[in-house]
Amino acid sequence: MHNYTAQIHFFGGTDNVTGANFLLTYGDKKILIDCGMIQGSPEQELRNYEDFPYDPADIDVLLVTHAHQDHIGRIPKLVQDGFAGTIYSTAATKEISAVMLDDAADILAFEATKEGRDPLYEKKYIEQALALWKVIPYHNTLEFLPGISMILRDAGHVLGSAMIEIHIEGKKILFTGDLGNSPSPLLHDIENVQDIDYIIMESVYGDRNHGDRTNRSHELEMVIKETIFNNGVLMIPVFSLERTQEILFELNDMVEHKRIPPVPIYLDSPLAERVTRIYEKSTEFFKPETRKIINSGDNVFDFPGLRISATKEDSQAINDVAPPKIILAGSGMMNGGRIIHHALRYLEDEKNTLLFVGFQAPGTLGSSIQSGAGKVRIYREDVRVRARIHSIPAYSGHAGADELVDFVRQTKDTLRAVYCVMGEPSSSQALARRIRDELGVYADAPHEGVVVDIPLK
Ligand SMILES: [Zn+2]
Fold first, then answer.
1. Span 143-188, pLDDT tens digits
2. Residue 233, phi-psi category: left (phi > 0), alpha (psi -120 to 50), beta (remainder)
3. Ligand 1 centre distance from Cα of residue 38 (Å)
4. CA of 135 to the centre of ligand 1 (A)
5. Residue 111's pLDDT is what?
6. How far apart are the C-alpha atoms of 255 and 260, rounded to whole Å?
7. Position 2 confidence tier, pLDDT thresholds 50, 70, 90
8. Ligand 1 centroid vs 157 CA: distance in angstroms?
9. Domain 6-208+397-454 homologous superfamily, CATH
10. Domain 216-395 is of which CATH architecture?
11. How many Å from the N-terminal Cα to the C-terminal Cα in the chain?
12. What is the pLDDT of residues 276-293, one digit of tens each?
C-alpha cells in the first residue's frame, strides 16, 4: 500500500454538458477520462482550438466512456499535441468512434478552409489514435497501470457506452459517462453498481424528469399522423448514434404493423447510416426482447418506404418529392448537417412539423427554435418559424433526475462524495442538492479548473 492521495482535475464537461475531460492523478500516474468537443454556439466551439490545460505527452492512459463527439471529439488533437499513451474503451465504442471522428474531420476541414485557419487536427491523427486504442469487454477487470485497475459497466446510453469503475488501494471511483434513459428499446438497462466511494456523474437532466416514456411511441405516431393529415413534411433532427437507431426501430414497428400509412421516410445522414450498419452487426449487446425480434428474421432498422440518401444529390432530390414525407437528418442540434437545408425550405410553412427528440444545447439553432424563436437566421437568410414545433422529451438518451438520484441511492452507504458534472450549472447544482438532501451524501458541482483530493484511506 502506498497511501497516496489521488486527485481529480475538472477540465471539461464542468459548467457545461459537452466537452467532457477529466484528469485523475495518482502518484506520478496521469489518467484522462474522455476528451470531448465543446458543442454550442460558434464562440463556445472556438474553445476547442485552445491548448489543453496539461501536457498531452505526460498522460499515461485515456479511458473513453462512449463514442459521442462531446466525449471523443478532441482525441485526434490530443494525439497531435503529443499524447502517446494507451487508449481503452469497449470494442463498439472504438468502432463507432472511428466513423464519428472521420465524419467530424471532414466537417472541421471544411469549416477551417472557409474561415481561413488550420483545422482542429490533421486527419492522419485519427489513424494514430486508433493505433494506440485497445478494447476491453464489459466486466473484465484490467490492471492497466501498476496498482490501478478498472472495470467497464454498461451505461445503457448508446451502443458500447460504459461507466468506468477505477480501483485504487481498495477504493472505487466511478466515472459514469452519460447514463441512458432506461429502459431503451434496444440496449440493456443501466447496470447496478455497488460499494462505490466516489462518483463523477453526469447531470444533463439533473433538474428535471422526462415525463411518461411508455407513451412516447404513441406520441410520435400522433405527430406522424397529424403531419400526413396536413399533407406536410415532418423533420426530425437526429443524433447519428443511438437516437437514429431508436427512431428507426420504432418506425419499423409502426410501418410493419400498419399503424401509420405508407409515406416515404428518408434517412438523410450518411453518418447515421454508417452507424446503423454497426448496430446491425452488434446485436449481441441488445436486450433479449429485441434480439428475439431480430432472430425471427426482421431487420429492425429497415422497412418498406425507408430511403437512404447517400449523396448530396440524393438529399437535394428529397425536395422534389411531394409531401407528405418524413425526413430524419443530422445534426441533432441543428448546428450543421443536412437538416439545415430542409429547415430553410420547410420551416416557413405551417403545414410542416419540426420534431425534437433530443437535448438542444444552448447556442444552437435547435435550441433557439425549441425555445420559441419566431424568426431564425439560416445561411444568411431570415426564416420565419411557422411550422409546428414539437418536442418529445421522453426520447432523451439521458436518465432523468429521479433516475439519477436512484442510481446514487443504490450505493449511498459507501459513498464519500459525488461530483455532478456534464450538465448546465443549474442542472448540476440541482442534482447535487437532491443528493445531499435526500440521500445525506456529500455532493458538489465543481466548476472548470477545480481540483479535488480523493483520500484513499
Ligand atoms: Zn453521450
1. 999 999 999 999 999 999 999 999 999 999 999 999 999 999 999 9
2. beta
3. 13
4. 19
5. 86
6. 6
7. low
8. 7
9. Ribonuclease Z/Hydroxyacylglutathione hydrolase-like (3.60.15.10)
10. 3-Layer(aba) Sandwich (3.40)
11. 10
12. 999 999 999 999 999 999
